[in-house]
From TrEMBL:
<dbReference type="InterPro" id="IPR036291">
    <property type="entry name" value="NAD(P)-bd_dom_sf"/>
</dbReference>
<dbReference type="GO" id="GO:0019878">
    <property type="term" value="P:lysine biosynthetic process via aminoadipic acid"/>
</dbReference>
<feature type="domain" description="Saccharopine dehydrogenase-like C-terminal">
    <location>
        <begin position="146"/>
        <end position="432"/>
    </location>
</feature>
<protein>
    <submittedName>
        <fullName>Saccharopine dehydrogenase-like NADP-dependent oxidoreductase</fullName>
    </submittedName>
</protein>
<keyword id="KW-0560">Oxidoreductase</keyword>
<dbReference type="InterPro" id="IPR032095">
    <property type="entry name" value="Sacchrp_dh-like_C"/>
</dbReference>
<dbReference type="InterPro" id="IPR005097">
    <property type="entry name" value="Sacchrp_dh_NADP-bd"/>
</dbReference>
<dbReference type="GO" id="GO:0004753">
    <property type="term" value="F:saccharopine dehydrogenase activity"/>
</dbReference>
<dbReference type="Pfam" id="PF03435">
    <property type="entry name" value="Sacchrp_dh_NADP"/>
</dbReference>
<dbReference type="GO" id="GO:0005737">
    <property type="term" value="C:cytoplasm"/>
</dbReference>
<feature type="domain" description="Saccharopine dehydrogenase NADP binding">
    <location>
        <begin position="26"/>
        <end position="140"/>
    </location>
</feature>
<dbReference type="Pfam" id="PF16653">
    <property type="entry name" value="Sacchrp_dh_C"/>
</dbReference>
<dbReference type="InterPro" id="IPR051168">
    <property type="entry name" value="AASS"/>
</dbReference>
C-alpha cells in the first residue's frame, strides 16, 4: 500500500516506504538554496528514507534527483493541512527549512503527533511558548542548528570549555561571502542564501556589550566599513554587529564578560555600498511601485531623483532597461530583484563561509588570547559552502536522534555538550574543521 492522507487521499505510491518504521524516515520541509547539503548528506545514509516537501514538486525532485530511498512531494504548507499532518505522522524526525513564520504550523503538527523537530532558525517567542509542552511530551525541538546560528554556537562552546581562566572578551564573526576565485564585481559579494534576508539584514539595528558598556547601534550606523578583523589566509574583512548579542552571553555562561559581540562578516566595499543603499531608502518595505513594464533604470530615476550613481549602483542596474514585472512592489522588493539579477552565483562560481572566534581570558601567567577560524569554499552554484554548513548540522543531529544517541529533550539550541560534542566530531569527518 502507498502512503495515505488520513486513510483516503493517496500522497504518492512508493514501495520503499511500505512497512518502514518512522525511526528510519526523515521529513524535510523546504528545498531551497540551503537544502542541497542536507539532502546530499541524508541520501548517503544507509537504510534511511527521506521525504522532501516543497511548494513545487519539481523543486524537491531537482534536489533529490530521484535517488533511491527518497520522495519528492509538492505541498502548499498553509492550505493542505491534512496532507501536511499525514506526512509528519510517517516520519521519525521532521526538519524545517521553511521561512520562520511557517515553523509554527509544522511545530504544531509535531506536537500533535509526537515528532522531534529541527530547524536552522532563531528561537522566537512563538516557539518559546511551546517549551513546556515539548518537554512534557518527551520531544526534542532543536532550533538554531545551522551555520549562524548553529556551528557558531557549537564551536564557541567547545572552545570555551577548554578555558579555565576568567573570560574578558568574546567576539564571534561569521559571514557568507564569495570565494576569491569568483570575486568579479564591485560589491565583492554574490548571493548564496535567501536573498530576502540579505535585503533586510540589520534593519532592527544591533545590541552588544563592549568594554563593560551595553551598546545599541541603529540601522543607519550599522554598516561601518572601518570595523575590521584579520582572517587567517584571507586578510581583513569588515564586520557589523549581528542582531542582539546579549541574550547569548547568558546562554554561553558569559553574562559578566565586559565585551561580548556576535557579528556578520562582509568585504569592506560591501558595507560601503550598503550604506548608500540605506541612504537611498532602497530597503523601504512600503508598497509604492507598479513594476509591470517598469525597468530598473526607470525605478532608480523615480525612487532616487537627483542621485548620482557610482560603480556599485551602476552594477545593480541604475541604467539597465531590464523590466521588473513583479506587480505592486516596495523599494525593498525591487532591490531584491536587482540583487537576484546582478549578484547571482554563476554555474561554476564558488561561495565561501568564514567564521572566527576571538576569546581573551586571564589565567595564571597573565592575559591570553585564543582564536579559532573556519574557511569553507563551495564546489559550484548548487553545492555551496552555505548549503553544506547550514545543512550538515541538521542532518547529523537528525541521525543522532534516530540512532538514539541524542537523548536530550525539550526546546534547545546547540549550546550543550550532549549536542555539540557528537555533532562537531561528525562535522570534522565531513571536512568542517576549525583551526
Amino acid at each position: 500500500m502507498g502512503a495515505k492522507v488520513l486513510g483516503t487521499e493517496e500522497i504518492i505510491k512508493n514501495d520503499y516506504l511500505d512497512g518502514m518504521e518512522p525511526s528510519r524516515h526523515i521529513l524535510l520541509f523546504g528545498a531551497g538554496k540551503s537544502a542541497t547539503g542536507l539532502i546530499d548528506f541524508l541520501t548517503r545514509q544507509p537504510g534511511l528514507f527521506v521525504t522532501v516537501v516543497d511548494a513545487r514538486e519539481e523543486t524537491a525532485l531537482a534536489k533529490t534527483k530521484g535517488a533511491p530511498g527518497t520522495r519528492a512531494v509538492g505541498l502548499d504548507v498553509l492550505a493542505e493541512a491534512e496532507k501536511r499532518l499525514a506526512l509528519v505522522r510517517e516520519a521519525g524526525v521532521v526538519i524545517s527549512l521553511m521561512p520562520p513564520t511557517l515553523h509554527q504550523l509544522i511545530a504544531s503538527d509535531c506536537l500533535s503527533i509526537g515528532r522531534h523537530l529541527l530547524t536552522a532558525s532563531y528561537i522566537d517567542d512563538a516557539m518559546r511558548v511551546l517549551e513546556p509542552e515539548v518537554r512534557a511530551k518527551g520531544l526534542l525541538f532543536l532550533c538554531e542548528m545551522g551555520l549562524d546560528p548553529g556551528i557558531d554556537h557549537m564551536s564557541a562552546m567547545s572552545l570555551l570549555d577548554g578555558i579555565r581562566g576568567e573570560v574578558l572578551s568574546f567576539r564571534s564573526h561569521c559571514g557568507g561571502l564569495v570565494a576569491p576565485s569568483s570575486d568579479d564585481n564591485p560589491w565583492h559579494y554574490k548571493i548564496s542564501w535567501n536573498p530576502r534576508n540579505v535585503v533586510l539584514a540589520g534593519k532592527a539595528g544591533a545590541r552588544f556589550r563592549e568594554a563593560g558598556v551595553d551598546r545599541q547601534v541603529a540601522y543607519e550606523a550599522l554598516f561601518d566599513p572601518g570595523r575590521r578583523v584579520a582572517i587567517p589566509g584571507l586578510g581583513e574583512l569588515a564586520w557589523y554587529p549581528n542582531r542582539d548579542s546579549l541574550p547569548y552571553a547568558s546562554l554561553y555562561g558569559l553574562e559578566h564578560v565586559p565585551t561580548f559581540i556576535r557579528t556578520t562578516l562582509r568585504h569592506p566595499d560591501f558595507c560601503k555600498g550598503w550604506n548608500k543603499v540605506i541612504g537611498l531608502r532602497l530597503t523601504d518595505e512600503t508598497p509604492a511601485y507598479d513594476t509591470d513594464g517598469l525597468s530598473l533604470a526607470e525605478f532608480f530615476r523615480i525612487h532616487c531623483p537627483g542621485a548620482a550613481p557610482d560603480e556599485q549602483m551602476e552594477y545593480l542596474g541604475w541604467n539597465d532597461a531590464t523590466e521588473i514585472n513583479r506587480g505592486r512592489c516596495s523599494a525593498a522588493d525591487v532591490l531584491q530583484f536587482a540583487l537576484e539579477t546582478k549578484l547571482t552565483l554563476k554555474e561554476h562560481d564558488r561561495d565561501m563561509v568564514v567564521m572566527l572566534h576571538e576569546i581573551e581570558y586571564r589565567e595564571q601567567g597573565g592575559v591570553k588570547t585564543i582564536a579559532s577560524s573556519l574557511v569553507v569554499e563551495g564546489t559550484d552554484a548548487t553545492h555551496t559552502a552555505m548549503a553544506k554548513t547550514v545543512g550538515l548540522p541538521l542532518g547529523i543531529a537528525a541521525m543522532l536522534l534516530l540512532e538514539g544517541r541524542l537523548k536530550l529533550r525539550g526546546l534547545h539550541i546547540p549550546t550543550l555538550p550532549d549536542i555539540y560534542t557528537p555533532v562537531l566530531e561528525r562535522l570534522e569527518r565531513e571536512g568542517i574543521a576549525f583551526t
